[in-house]
Amino acid sequence: MRTERWNVGTMERLIAAVVVLLSIFPSFHLSAQHFSIGPEVAFGDYREVSSDLRYRGVGGGARATVTWKKFSADVAISKVTYKPTSTGTTTQQFDAREVDVRLRYYVSGPISAELGFINRKADPEFNAQSMGAITAGAHMGYLLGPGVHMALSGGLMFGPRFSGGGTISALGALHLGLGLTVDALRGRLRFNGDYDFQRISRKTNGAGGALPAPIQQALGRAGIAVAF
Fold first, then answer.
1. Measuring CA to CA, how many Å separate 126 from each of 87, 130, 164, 213?
2. Taking burial as the number of CB atoms within 10 A of a residue's CB, which of 162, 171, 178, 185 is the most buried?
3. DSSP string spanning 103-147?
4. What angle do CA 27, 30, 31 make, to 5 degrees?
């Protein structure tokens, strides 16, 4: 099953290199282009197969964003230590390292088309599912007031790969998101928060045929970023 998992460590190094390059190139400081980066606190709720396998955890991460004309990109990295809840049946905790990349193209009004990928690695790998998937959907941004922005997003997850195997139908995996950003110091400082929900109707092969083995995660992040 190791061949089905994406290499999270390699991807994190690649993203870090891209973020550094974007921050030092002079062309990204033009008036039509913006770049921000900063740390975040993450907290999540993870369930697998049934509500009996339920975990909650906290951790940290970082986020970088870049905007150029009609294009924008959002990269978030997090590590959450999930511990079993008191109402669950499992006793083993695990760490979840996640990379979430979203690329957007402005279409019209508040709507942008969105394409990206999600990569999550569980450690120890036998305590939860590692997975990777391509995401596609729509992103809607709204200006609530001076310096206050709200965003809604949603879409499907395609071609997921799981460390423990399993399949889904064409419309069997979805993700939803809600975000809020508040600008300060004339836009040089940003306070941001977001909430992402994933539901994957995974099935595995059993003695009696295909067995439901769904995966669900709710992940919240809050942080501060410096904008250039």
1. 21, 9, 8, 15
2. 162
3. EEEEEETTEEEEEEEEEEEEESTTSS--EEEEEEEEEEEEEEETT
4. 165
In this structure, how many other beta carbons lie within 10 angstroms of the beta carbon of residue 166?
21
Enter the tokens of residue 48: 């697998």
pLDDT digits (tens, 9 = 90+) for 66-93: 999 999 999 999 999 999 988 767 778 9
CA-wise closest residue to 142 among 185, 170, 110: 110
Cα 51 from Cα 104, distance rounded (Å): 34
CB 73 within 8 A of CB 102: yes
Whether the Cβ atoms of residue 148 and residue 181 lie closer than 8 Å to each other: yes
Backbone φ, ψ for residue 167 (5° rounding): -135, 165
Separation CA 99–CA 76 (nearest Å): 6
The helix/strand/coil state of 164 is coil
How many degrees, rounded to 5, is the angle at CA 50 between CA 44 and CA 54? 30
Tokens 């197969």 -> residue: 49
Residue 8's H or E segment, with its range, is helix 8-24
Task: Sketch out the chain's domains with CATH numbers.
Answer: 2-227 (2.40.128)
pLDDT in tens, 85-144: 887 677 789 999 999 999 999 999 999 999 999 999 999 988 899 999 999 999 999 999
What percentage of the chain exceeds 90 in pLDDT?
66
Phi-psi region at 32: left, alpha or beta (left = phi > 0; alpha = psi -120 to 50): alpha
Beta bridge partners of 117: 101, 134
